[in-house]
Amino acid sequence: MRLTFALALSLLVTGLATVGAERYIVASDIPWAPFEWASPEGDYLGFDLDVMRCIAVLMGYEIEIRPVAFDSIIPAVRLGEVDIGASGFTITAEREEVVDFSNPYWLSNQAVLIRKDSKFKSLDDLFCCGNKIGAQRGTTGADWVQSNLVDKGVDVKLVLYETYPEAVLDLVNGRLAAVVQDEPASQQSLAAYPVLKVLDTIETNEYFGFLVASGDPKGLLPKINEGMLELGLRYDLSLPAEGQWKVKFRILPDSPWFYLVQAYFGPPLEKVEAAWKSCIGTLYDETLAPEERVYNFAKCLAEKASE
Amino acid sequence: MTASDWQGLLKGVPSLLGGLGINLQILLGLVTLGFLVGIVIALIQVYGPRPLATLAVGYEWFFRGVPEMVLLLLIYYGLRQFHVPITPFIAAVVALGLRSSAYQSQIFRGAIQAVGSRQMMAALSVGMTRLQAIRHVILPQALRLSIPPWSNEFSSVLKDTTLASAIGVIEVFKRARFIIGRQYGLALPAFMLVALFFLVLTYMGNWILGALERRYRIPGFEAKGTGERF
Amino acid sequence: MALLVVEDLHKRYGKEEVLRGVSFTLERGETKVIIGPSGTGKSTLLRCINRLTEPDRGRIWLNGEEITSRRTNIYKIRAQIGFVFQDFNLFTHLTALDNVRLGLIRVKRMPRREATERAMRELARVGLADKANAYPAQLSGGQQQRVSIARALAMDPKLILFDEPTSALDPELIGEVLQVMIELAEAGMTMLVVTHEMGFARSVADEIIFMEKGVIVEQGPPEVLFTNPKVPRTAEFLRKITEFYGESS
């Protein structure tokens, strides 16, 4: 009897909590490991998504993750279809015109992948002679090739793909001379195909940010920015001569952010998946305070993934 | 393929099969919708009054003419734009179903015309209404004649279900991309596995339709008549 | 009043006027045979009678009820008028039994059992009880036509219209169909028959109607029409048709 009562009460409380919490839809182009991908069991995990989950816990709202093709995310955000875009979006002036970005959370450059057996010794060898260069449609890698090579009359051909794996496969099969891909994700290509190597890195200094609809109608950006601070991400800003902001990230040691980076950038994906499976429960352990839940989860993930 | 590739592919099979289940649900929905609407459109084209028949021809023209991907996006985003809370799954069923209805109506119209106006006349002559004649005389014959061309349409729409991934339905093709994104080396094997699934499904579907055709076969049943309007 | 009264019937297909004012009557139990060259509107006339084809002008009464009135429930009328087609037009997907039974069940709303008994009786009447479960394609032309007569009979019609019922048959199959029709006439069925079978016309018809180019040229009892036609055109037609088809069947 007492048990039933307790159960009923707890159901009621969680029910009320559910009703009370706001629910936002987070769109992400799955798969793009290690920022976002789906495990064989169908769990959506990755650095972006767990940052979103942790911020939601800290700020007291709920999220639903929805896989959306990369080039459809900004239209979906603008239509109000989804609330947040979390998919390794580089903050660019063009995108700033149509959506609003959070503070930056990642700095990335573009890696230029080639086959080990190809003759290219430098980027100068590669960017000429009608060579075909592949990239995923809508990414900054594709933009860079377009605006810095094709538009400037360099004799290369840009080939666009809906996903990176397809571009990389064409590179392996010899239909492309090179693929331009974000540095962190390129590690995956190298792991899958030992015949590939990084020819060089293009210093694009891309800052990733989370994005919401223009004007932030649901007031999400302050929550996301505050959440990132709470997770342990700090900024050192400097204003160099050209007038361009230069951001340096500083990650607090022993912070959730520190552990999430450790978990997602290094260990193989299968180990991360296994760790995630056993740790995710702690993130939703209602008996603890939100800060504790987030810390325990991130630490658990980093420890189990690097075991 | 390396050992870890095989392992990854094997681990992905349950997820792919789950995705295939979603393709089958879309298939069931779109085929049913296309069948019902297709029959109505065909009947209107053959027996309906002029203005309605013209409208039905326009309907068929529209849904056959617009590329299916465009139709899919048009219906999903179009309806969402007007705040109709349509899920990607339902949008896929509706868009692909309406498109299929245009093709199915053509099949049924041909079959109804092949049954011929004389069967209609004979039914009317014993005092049946047009609806009774359609229900008890025309359709039972027309549907039998429709099975072989319908098999083609079935194979075609079965494959079309993968287009639903474009509006966010996590079906087998999308799941194959999930697997590939996790392990780039599976790009070819995963797509080959999906291709194999569809080959098997097409074979099974056509086998079932063939069995259906044999089950309802009638001695000496053949198309006759002139196909004129009556 | 006569069972069937046709008054000044007109029908036009595009430029061609197929019926140009046809009038005649048919008494209960009477058999009238319509003869005439092909393309003179005989089939159109029959179809106008149960409004399978809508006449442009003119009026028709069955048993005192005006068929051509817009208020008439034409489906009820059609159920009372049997129609036997040149090409039999059996329902291809149904057995002989189901062909006969369909109208009883769907139109007359007869219980299935009763409908089956009735249909079997009519099949027996045309000598095809043993073919009840055969599909049309498994029957000869003559057998198909007899099933279609049974289909018409089952509805208890006040009148049966025959549209060249033997024209599509091989010569050796014509006899069995005519035999059934002769028996029907003797049993007192009211029949209106379009045919080229002059032997049948002569021996069974109470009256012959000779039609040409959409009008009735001459009508009268067979003995008068065949031996002493008033109009020269009738004589000419009869001479030609006897050359073609022979005296009797």
Structure commentary:
The complex is a heterotrimer of chains A (307), B (230) and C (249). In chain A, helix 2 (47-59) crosses helix 9 and helix 11 packs antiparallel against helix 12 (290-305). Chain A contains twelve helices and 13 strands. In chain A, a hairpin with a 5-residue loop joins strand 2 and strand 3. In chain A, strands 1, 4, 5, 6, 7, 8, 9, 10 and 11 form a nine-stranded mixed β-sheet that branches. In chain A, strands 2-3 form a two-stranded antiparallel sheet. With 307 residues, chain A is α/β, with parallel strands linked by helices. The mean pLDDT of chain A is 89. Chain A has two domains: 5-107 and 206-305, D-Maltodextrin-Binding Protein, domain 2 (3-Layer(aba) Sandwich), CATH 3.40.190.10; 109-205, Periplasmic binding protein-like II (D-Maltodextrin-Binding Protein, domain 2, 3-Layer(aba) Sandwich), CATH 3.40.190.10. Chain B has a domain at 29-172 and 206-216: MetI-like (MetI-like fold, Orthogonal Bundle), CATH 1.10.3720. Chain B is an all-alpha fold. Chain C is α/β, with parallel strands linked by helices and 249 residues long. Chain C contains nine helices and ten strands. Chain C has helices at 42-49, 74-80, 96-106, 112-125, 141-154, 171-186, 198-204, 222-227, 232-245; strands spanning 4-13, 16-26, 31-35, 57-62, 65-66, 81-84, 159-163, 191-194, 207-212, 215-220. In chain C, strand 1 and strand 2 (16-26) form a beta hairpin. The model of chain C has no long low-confidence stretch (mean pLDDT 93). The B-C interface holds B 115, 118-119, 121-129, 132, 136-137, 140-141, 144, 218-222, 224 and C 50, 52, 75-83, 85, 87, 89-93, 102-103, 106-107, 135-138, 151-152, 155.
Summarize the structure.
Chain A has 307 residues and is of the alpha/beta class. Chain A has helices spanning 2-20, 47-59, 70-79, 93-98, 123-126, 140-150, 164-172, 183-192, 221-231, 256-264, 269-283, 290-305; strands at 23-28, 37-38, 44-45, 62-67, 84-90, 99-101, 106-115, 131-136, 156-161, 178-182, 196-213, 233-238, 246-251.
